[in-house]
Amino acid sequence: MVLGDKDKIKFYSNRTDFKVTLMNESYSLEIENVVAKNCTENCTKNCTENCTENINETQRKIIELIKYNPNITPKIMMKEINLSRTAVTLNLKQLKDKKIIKRVGSDRKGYWKLLI
């Protein structure tokens, strides 16, 4: 891994934390395989479109953020991924529709649960 490669290393800091994320190139393939398996198992006779779709790069980033911090808010996701609130909300809805994530509890005090 080359240290200057911005796609493989991400830095995050705020007043109390400093985080370095090293991307694992093979991990994204693992997520796709698990998602495909989960979708296939949960498909019904009427479900065809969701099972053939793969998750996009934004959804992959959202999954990583949720994995790191299940209490993360869409507002923080917006800053981390550098997207609008509408884009984050749309991708969260798509992930929920594909049964990849689930919101447990209220919007204010709840958390995200990965179903994969």
Supply the helix-strand structural class: alpha+beta
Kindly provide the radius of gyration, computed on alpha-carbon positions and rounded to a whole number of angstroms: 15 Å
Strand content: 15-25%
Mean of all residue-level pLDDT scores: 76
Distance between the termini: 28 Å
Envelope shape = globular
Could you give the order of the helices and strands?
EEHHHHHEE
Report on the biggest sheet: 2 strands, antiparallel
Parts with pLDDT < 50 across at least 5 consecutive residues: 44-52
Q: Considering DSSP H and I runs of 4 or more, what fraction of the residues is helical? A: 40-55%
Number of extended strands: 4
Counting structural domains, the number is 1
Strand order of the largest sheet: 1-2
CATH class: Mainly Alpha
Individual helix count: 5
CATH superfamily: Winged helix-like DNA-binding domain superfamily/Winged helix DNA-binding domain
Q: How does CATH name the architecture?
A: Orthogonal Bundle
Under CATH, the topology can be stated as Arc Repressor Mutant, subunit A
Main features:
5 helices, 116 residues, alpha+beta, Arc Repressor Mutant, subunit A, globular, 4 strands, two-stranded antiparallel ribbon, two-stranded antiparallel sheet
